[in-house]
Amino acid sequence: MTIHIPISDLEPTVKKLYLEGKLQGGLTIDYAPNCLMSWYEGKEIVIFDFTPICKMDNRKTGYKVYQNSTEIVVEIIGLK
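Above: the chain sequence. Below: its structure as C-alpha cells.
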C-alpha cells in the first residue's frame, strides 16, 4: 500500500521547511501520536497526521518514505 501526501497539503510552515530542505533526520513515523515526524532546530515537528485516515501500526509491517518536490510517498511494506 502507498500513501501519497501532496506537499500542498502540508501546513504552510512545514511546507516551507520541507521545500527549503531544512528538516533534519529524515521523515519517520511516530506510532504513538500516529504522525509522520521530523526535526527542525532540535525540536520534533509533525509533518503529517495520519489520524483522520488510518491508525499506523508497526507490529506486522514496515515502511519506506520517499520524498520529492511535489509529494511525500509512504510505502507500507509486507509482513516482518
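Helices lie at 12-19.
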